[in-house]
DNA sequence: ATTAGGG
DNA sequence: CCCTAAT
């Protein structure tokens, strides 16, 4: 079957196919406060969604990924380490009209690893927050990802010109998909606040600025004007202050092609028939719609007018006019930023609630989020840095992973929708998105990134380069030439080939080069020469082992398992013969310069195993061959060679 | 920073 | 493989 990955638009097209793979935005219904989660699924003929298999996921790595979403929050979370490498050649375009878009970019080495990634996050969000740790700014600014569009100016803000386009696109998509989640009202996850208070350092006096900042993207959007007025001085006039209804305001001020007569004046959306709603929709968005869903239409219209996803589902049944005009809550656009959360926070902080008025000002917000973030940080700090190993071994119950109590603010809402256990944790440096979601009944894991480094520290930059380029190789070969081979088939074939090559004595490795160019050539030639299997199974492993640490059997596999290939073993043996057992760093330097993932410790361990194997093998020759499953069958020659060397070493200990 | 060993 | 202790 073919595999297609693309925009949500493409997604639609895929419905026409029988069974294809697509990246489908998971839009939990009535989700509030949970970031949208993406999972890879296949749309089977009957329209049901089937979790993608490893291979499919792998294939996606090579594909351009366009994600359009109306999530309240879109978290562009760049994975780290291997995970990053896996998206090296992926172009990720996230077009989102999310209320908030948080682009999290890793720092340090992690940035290096996303070098090849083009990440465009075009957001029409009311608010776009770039999670930029102050300390990491310099790094971030040097990141291509940043340069390529995530951050465009001093203020992280969406390309306003694209707002309308995206919005319409999205609406269109929803229509075409029949994906009408009328009552979805995402809200803002906690960490947003943190980011605001901590990263942006908003202060009370800056309220105007703050609001202006938030408004800016909106006021710049052209077609879908909203209820907010921003005069030239930068002052903001919340629509609530406007005498006219939001709609009126928006429409009268907006010089647009859409026919606004339809939406002029007070209109109670609830009273309108579907047809009228459609008209209104057209007037608002300047385009026709075929959606019949009244709720959806109403919400959509409201959203269009408010230019925010913050159209509460619960209020949807209320007259939208009132909703917008009367309930100042939603009109206080600037503060809708997780207004719910603010409430929650304030609930715990009796004092500063401005009692009567609904005037949730930035001050409150600020304080609230400040405290909130403080708590977060505190919690974060408390966390023990390196209990990784223990966790790995004992994390049978990964659901409990929330090492941070994560502020029980989520209260009812979280309990209402446990499907998406998506948690954003901010330590001011990282954002981790996790979870297991259930869609269409099936449970599946959403790729999530631990804030813990998942691979061994890199030796140096060259090692990184090595890995990087080899990774590119990895991705290219299996995905293209061996497209329809199963991993096992691949392995077999490769191993066979490797055996052949194996017999020939291998030339000494080229010297470790400090030149990118040279090094790359080195890698390439190397790969070209013997088509090292590890390049292939490495990718295989990356999906098998890293992607799914927990097997069906329940037994968890090592996070970083890379099967040793014969050529590696050979290199190792040769290395030992040359430099002697124990000189692992030497061996690594000379014989494994192109295998950055093999550390000297790995070499040592492997050698230890080889010794065990070689000595345990001689008594009963059958042992090695009878071991049908698991480790590869090390050729007797090598084992004998190993024994030979071992004896030599023991006899002549330096 | 490397090695040796235990798990 | 991963972790730690000892060099």
Automatic annotation (TrEMBL):
Its main location: nucleus. The keyword Cytoplasm does not apply. It is found in: Nucleus. It comes from the Eukaryota. SMART domains: SANT. InterPro entries: Homeodomain-like_sf (IPR009057), Myb_dom (IPR017930), SANT/Myb (IPR001005). Residues 556-615 form the HTH myb-type domain. The keyword Nucleus applies. Residues 388-402, 410-420 have a biased composition (Basic and acidic residues). Residues 346-428 are annotated as: Disordered. Keywords: Nucleus. Pfam families: Myb_DNA-binding (PF00249). Residues 564-611 form the Myb-like domain. This is Uncharacterized protein LOC104712871.
């Amino acid at each position: 079957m073919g595999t297609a990955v693309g925009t949500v638009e493409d997604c639609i097209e895929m419905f026409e196919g029988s069974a294809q793979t697509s990246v489908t935005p998971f839009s939990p219904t009535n989700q509030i406060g949970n970031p949208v989660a993406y999972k890879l699924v296949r749309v089977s003929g009957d329209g049901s969604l089937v979790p993608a298999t490893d291979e499919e996921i792998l294939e996606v790595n090579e594909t351009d990924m366009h994600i359009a979403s109306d999530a309240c929050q879109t978290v562009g979370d760049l994975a780290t380490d291997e995970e990053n490498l896996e998206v090296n050649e992926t172009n990720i375009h996230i077009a989102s009209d999310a209320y908030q878009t948080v682009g999290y970019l890793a720092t340090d080495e992690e940035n290096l690893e996303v070098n090849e990634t083009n990440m465009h996050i075009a957001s029409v969000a009311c608010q776009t927050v770039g999670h930029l740790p102050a300390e990491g700014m310099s790094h971030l600014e040097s990141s291509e990802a940043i340069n390529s569009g995530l951050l465009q100016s001093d203020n992280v803000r969406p390309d306003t010109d694209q707002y309308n386009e995206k919005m319409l696109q999205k609406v269109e998509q929803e229509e075409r998909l029949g994906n009408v989640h009328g009552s979805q009202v995402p809200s803002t996850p906690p960490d947003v606040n943190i980011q605001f208070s901590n990263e942006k350092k908003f202060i009370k006096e800056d309220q105007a600025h703050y609001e202006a900042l938030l408004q800016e993207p909106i006021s710049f959007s052209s077609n879908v004007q909203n209820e907010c007025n921003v005069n030239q001085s930068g002052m903001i006039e919340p629509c609530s202050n406007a005498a006219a209804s939001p709609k009126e305001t928006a429409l009268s001020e907006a010089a647009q092609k859409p026919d606004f007569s339809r939406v002029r004046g007070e209109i109670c959306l609830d009273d309108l028939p579907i047809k009228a709603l459609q008209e209104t929709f057209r007037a608002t968005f300047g385009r026709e719609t075929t959606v019949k869903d009244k709720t959806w239409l109403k919400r959509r219209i409201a959203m269009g007018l408010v230019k925010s996803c913050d159209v509460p589902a619960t209020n949807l049944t209320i007259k939208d006019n009132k909703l917008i005009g009367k309930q100042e809550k939603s009109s206080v656009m600037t503060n809708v930023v997780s207004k719910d959360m603010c409430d929650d926070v304030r609930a715990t902080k009796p004092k500063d609630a401005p009692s009567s008025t609904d005037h949730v000002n930035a001050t409150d917000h600020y304080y609230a989020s400040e405290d909130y973030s403080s708590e977060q940080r505190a919690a974060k700090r408390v966390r023990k840095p390196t209990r990784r190993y223990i966790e790995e071994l004992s994390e049978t119950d990964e659901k409990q992973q929330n090492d941070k109590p994560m502020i029980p603010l989520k209260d009812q809402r979280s309990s209402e929708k446990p499907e998406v256990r998506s948690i954003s944790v901010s330590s001011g440096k990282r954002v981790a998105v996790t979870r297991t979601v259930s869609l269409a009944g099936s449970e599946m894991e959403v790729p999530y990134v631990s804030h813990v480094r998942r691979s061994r520290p890199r030796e140096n930059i060259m090692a990184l380069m090595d890995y990087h380029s080899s990774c590119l190789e990895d991705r290219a070969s299996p995905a293209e030439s061996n497209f329809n081979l199963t991993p096992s088939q691949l392995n077999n074939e490769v191993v066979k080939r490797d055996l052949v090559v194996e017999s020939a004595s291998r030339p000494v490795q080229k010297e470790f080069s400090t030149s990118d160019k040279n090094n790359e050539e080195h890698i390439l030639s190397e790969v070209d020469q013997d088509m090292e299997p590890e390049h292939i199974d490495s990718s295989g492993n990356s999906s098998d082992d890293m992607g799914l640490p927990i097997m069906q059997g329940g037994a968890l596999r090592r996070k970083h398992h890379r099967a040793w290939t014969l050529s590696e073993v050979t290199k190792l043996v040769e290395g030992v013969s040359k430099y002697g057992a124990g000189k692992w760093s030497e061996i690594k330097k000379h014989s494994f310069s192109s295998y950055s993932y093999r550390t000297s410790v790995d070499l040592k361990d492997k050698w230890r195993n080889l010794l065990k194997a070689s000595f345990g093998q001689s008594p009963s020759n059958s042992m090695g061959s009878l071991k049908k499953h698991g480790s590869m069958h090390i050729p007797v020659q090598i084992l004998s060679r190993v024994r030979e060397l071992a004896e030599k070493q023991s006899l002549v200990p330096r």
